[in-house]
Amino acid sequence: MNDYKAAKEAFVSGMTGSTVSHINLISSVALVSIALYSTLQTRIYVGREIPFLQSCVVLVLPLLLSMTLFANKPVSLCFLLLLPTGFILLRTPWPDTSIPLHGSAASNLAAPKQSSLTPLPALTTYRAHMMFMTILGIFAVDFPVFPRSLAKCESYGVSLMDLGVGSFVFSNGLVSAIPLLKDPRHLSAPLLPKLWAVVRKMFPVIALGVVRVLLVKGTEYPEHETEYGTHWNFFITLALLPILQVLLHPLIRVVPSSLLGVGVGLLQQIALSLFGLKHYVRTAPRLNIISANKEGFVSLAGYLSIHLLGLSTGTLLLPPSPSFFRRLLRQRSTPSELSAPRQNDKTAVELVSYAIVWWALLGFVSLLHVDEGVSRQTANLAYALWIVAFNTSFILAYLVLDMMFFPTPAVRKGKPVPTPIDTRASAPALLEAVNMNGLPLFLLANVGTGLVNLSMRTMYTGTVAAMSVLTLYVLAFCVVAWRLRRTRVWRL
């Protein structure tokens, strides 16, 4: 087992990654799969739910193929998905009679709830697809069918798995805006009670991080020490970020969270480049608890930057209009307006503006050769900007697809005007199910990955066997999510 452990650790170590354009093309498969699903929903399954198995084939299987068999030819996979999409669009006309809204949509238009956010299907779709890409990457990386260029980079570089980690943090930051939108007084509430409340909520995640360390050490499970450190892991980072956000509430009241996020990333980059922190991560011996987990401690500030920029995006995306939170802080809006009809066109325009800014800043940082490139290991400024630019752009793409296939009713004098197309108030049912219990499912996927790795030597598995195991794995994940779709297992 010791020889295999060493071979397995070498199998996932020393990677230099791929390119931003390659990662974007692979990720675009998710967008094309949604286009195909939406085409089926509006042309074939009008007013009905697409069955579970068909949903898995359309929404999930392409993601698995994009990072395995089609990883080096994602454009071909996109083309294969676009063929049936285009054929159905050309051959099947839009329904020419008014179709009743689904029950959830009708109730949403007829009787909005006080201080409740209007559903945003594009966000649910984005978060669920991000979850699928993350859990598939975590498991598939142990098989040779998963290209090494997509595995986590050792020090510098971009890869699909590096993107997944940062996107998970960004997504959590995005939804952390919800309590601030519902009650902006939360920012000025006494700090200690808030801190204690969030520590209690995050304690199970911290406990899971500790349990993972004990299990990894106790079973001689292959580990990648330069990823987070000897004892640190991603669960610990996830648990600490909401706590750090609460500590910054006094600043968030007076400084836009976008500027605060960039500021944190900039300060960390200064420490990395000018004060020897980068050299410390690379060369310091692991002599104590701090140096043993130097990667985890150093990258925490970078992940906080991503979390805060996710929070900023959430304040634009979640309310009915992108200016809602700014007006709320100036007391020109009230939380009761959260249930107003969405102005998705304005939200899309604002997202375009931010996407341009983040990509431009990333290009500027690269042009100036700040640091040595993107580094997930230290979560440097380039990494934070890449994560935010990517996620902002892809959320925008999901939103535009939703606006194309499921146009929002026009609003006249505050009243929605029905359209001839079914206005969907929810994302695909399978993706809703994944989003319902995101964190528990993520933990379950990690446990499943560990059990499979302990029961078989994945790095020596052939292509056919690997694809069979991966397909069964993701299908089991979908079945569990589907069975739990009406129950929130763990409310944080």
Automatic annotation (TrEMBL):
<dbReference type="GO" id="GO:0006506">
    <property type="term" value="P:GPI anchor biosynthetic process"/>
</dbReference>
<feature type="transmembrane region" description="Helical">
    <location>
        <begin position="158"/>
        <end position="181"/>
    </location>
</feature>
<feature type="transmembrane region" description="Helical">
    <location>
        <begin position="258"/>
        <end position="277"/>
    </location>
</feature>
<dbReference type="GO" id="GO:0005789">
    <property type="term" value="C:endoplasmic reticulum membrane"/>
</dbReference>
<keyword id="KW-0012">Acyltransferase</keyword>
<dbReference type="InterPro" id="IPR009447">
    <property type="entry name" value="PIGW/GWT1"/>
</dbReference>
<keyword id="KW-0808">Transferase</keyword>
<feature type="transmembrane region" description="Helical">
    <location>
        <begin position="382"/>
        <end position="401"/>
    </location>
</feature>
<comment type="function">
    <text>A acetyltransferase, which acetylates the inositol ring of phosphatidylinositol during biosynthesis of GPI-anchor.</text>
</comment>
<comment type="pathway">
    <text>Glycolipid biosynthesis; glycosylphosphatidylinositol-anchor biosynthesis.</text>
</comment>
<keyword id="KW-0812">Transmembrane</keyword>
<feature type="transmembrane region" description="Helical">
    <location>
        <begin position="459"/>
        <end position="482"/>
    </location>
</feature>
<dbReference type="Pfam" id="PF06423">
    <property type="entry name" value="GWT1"/>
</dbReference>
<feature type="transmembrane region" description="Helical">
    <location>
        <begin position="52"/>
        <end position="70"/>
    </location>
</feature>
<keyword id="KW-1133">Transmembrane helix</keyword>
<feature type="transmembrane region" description="Helical">
    <location>
        <begin position="231"/>
        <end position="252"/>
    </location>
</feature>
<feature type="transmembrane region" description="Helical">
    <location>
        <begin position="21"/>
        <end position="40"/>
    </location>
</feature>
<dbReference type="GO" id="GO:0072659">
    <property type="term" value="P:protein localization to plasma membrane"/>
</dbReference>
<feature type="transmembrane region" description="Helical">
    <location>
        <begin position="201"/>
        <end position="219"/>
    </location>
</feature>
<protein>
    <recommendedName>
        <fullName>GPI-anchored wall transfer protein</fullName>
        <ecNumber>2.3.-.-</ecNumber>
    </recommendedName>
</protein>
<feature type="transmembrane region" description="Helical">
    <location>
        <begin position="126"/>
        <end position="146"/>
    </location>
</feature>
<keyword id="KW-0337">GPI-anchor biosynthesis</keyword>
<feature type="transmembrane region" description="Helical">
    <location>
        <begin position="351"/>
        <end position="370"/>
    </location>
</feature>
<keyword id="KW-0256">Endoplasmic reticulum</keyword>
<dbReference type="GO" id="GO:0032216">
    <property type="term" value="F:glucosaminyl-phosphatidylinositol O-acyltransferase activity"/>
</dbReference>
<keyword id="KW-0472">Membrane</keyword>
<comment type="similarity">
    <text>Belongs to the PIGW family.</text>
</comment>
<feature type="transmembrane region" description="Helical">
    <location>
        <begin position="297"/>
        <end position="318"/>
    </location>
</feature>
